[in-house]
Known about the structure:
By secondary structure, the chain is α/β, with parallel strands linked by helices.
Amino acid sequence: MSAQVDLEQAHLTVLYDRLDELRAEAVRHLATAQPAERAYWAGEAARLESVADGLCFGRVDLTDGSRLYIGRAGLFEDDEPLLIDWRAPAARPFYTATAAAPEGVRLRRRITTRGRTVVDVNDELLIAGAVGEQDLAGDAALLAAVSAGRTEHMADIVTTLQAEQDRIIRDPYAGVLVVQGGPGTGKTAVALHRVAHLLYTRPHLRTRGVLVIGPSTLFLDYIGQVLPGLGENSVVTATIADLYPGTPIDRPATPEEARRKGSARAAEELAAAVRGSVRVPGEPVDVLFEQETLSLSPVDCRRAVDRARHAGLPHNQARLVFHREVVAVLADRLAARLEAVTLTESGEAIDGGDPDGRLSAADLRALEAAGVIVDWTDTAPRSLLDDTDVARLRDALLADARLQDTLDVIWPPLAVTGLVPGPWSPADIPLLDEAAALIDACDGTTYGHIVVDEAQELSEMAWRMLMRRCPSRSMTVVGDLAQTSDPAGATAWQDVLQPHVADRWKQAELTVNYRTPAEIMAAANDVLAAHQPGVRLATSVRSTGVPPLDVTGSLDVVGELVARLPGRVALITPERHLTHVAHHGADAVVLTPGQAKGLEFDSVVVVDPDGIVDGAPRGRNDLYVAMTRPTHRLAVLRLR
Length: 640
């Protein structure tokens, strides 16, 4: 083994020497780059810095005698590949080759490093009939990774990707890919690694942008190191609330309110309210302009309204079209009236009554009152109104305050807060965004691809919010319908996706639970089976031999339980117990089931499971979520 470690150390040293050269080159370019090039070189320097930890983690020896090293980035010396990016097609057999289907691989080696030092190697011989301990080396590496202690940040799984995970990560599907999987199957990690793979295979996404949506800022902080560790620093992360910034959330939503405001019917109601704000008068409307009284008939108004709506613009922009349509009618009508004046001050015929076709002084004074500038020189011909004159009439009408007031009664300007008054709950965020799309121009921020984590929690209105930001409808959607807790959340993927993408979506499934020991999953699955019989359950790959600890007592024993459990501990409890539990919980993380979504800990204490079940319409799902957060130990504290 020592000789093999020394061999890999020699190659690792070559790799880091090359990485250092590239980083130094990027820094030099950054120092002298023009402004337009600085962002590129800054990004390149950051990328090379971020892939340094765990740079090389694997090797495949092929049956043709060649050898490839696999790592976080591609490194070349001239045209010679020193390290293959894990996303490259050539690297795929490292993850997918088996003894039954070796894909040209004779040997797979996993290389464990600490800093720039090789500390271990594990080999698998993928030859027909190979048996024995070596065949388990890959699983041993996986189990070491999933059994490792948890920290405040999620680690990537690039070194231990399994075949079913790799298949989803490399899936080239251009529509909406739904990744359904139970707790511990690696849904989040798969989604983030798929983003890294898409950015590698579709470089245009770097300019069009990628957005990752998570259920909470705590969750986004937790996953925040994964993509940078894979060499990707440009992805935007946000919660649904972040997409409509500056909105104070003053209260929680009741379950009934969440269902009502989360339904797509809320969009129809908002659209009807906006449309209903336009009121065509049933009688003619008189408008005083300068010293002229102009009349708008209901037909004039209806025609202008129809043309404005036909423009397909948001309400406040379409309102300006309505104004222009009305003003065009009034300007033409006023121009015709001015040209139809028949008497001068002395009673003589004008505007056509003059044999030479010129306008008289009375005509000119009338036009001047309307804001039309006319040449007063004696030598110049006093022409009839031309297009420029009519355009000036329109400008004068548009600027007239009395006319504006009259038109605002017919087509009023609207504000988002007028349609969705506060105080606001989280359920109001998608409504505010919908209202903004209906009445005002959006800010234009869209993305080439969106990842939606814990997607089962999104309401129909939240999906509308996301679809507006992804015109290409290219998404990676990950979730577990058995964990839905939001009253307006999904019960079937087809129901929330088909209205937006028709059949441009497909589902992949993760079936292996790498995180949660079998003993804990057995208890959690009993909770799930009690109210969702027939749900497909993920299979745990490991067992600890330690069943969950079931305790009955008061909240005062929380501290004792925390002291008995290993590693990073979370206390998951109904909201009403948060303050008391935090007081007794020592250094443990204290969360509600909703806050714990997507997170994982070494040990978890579920405080008051009955209170969790009774505290929400989908309380059993919440309890299932709480029980499946640990990687080692679970304790359940039942209150008496």
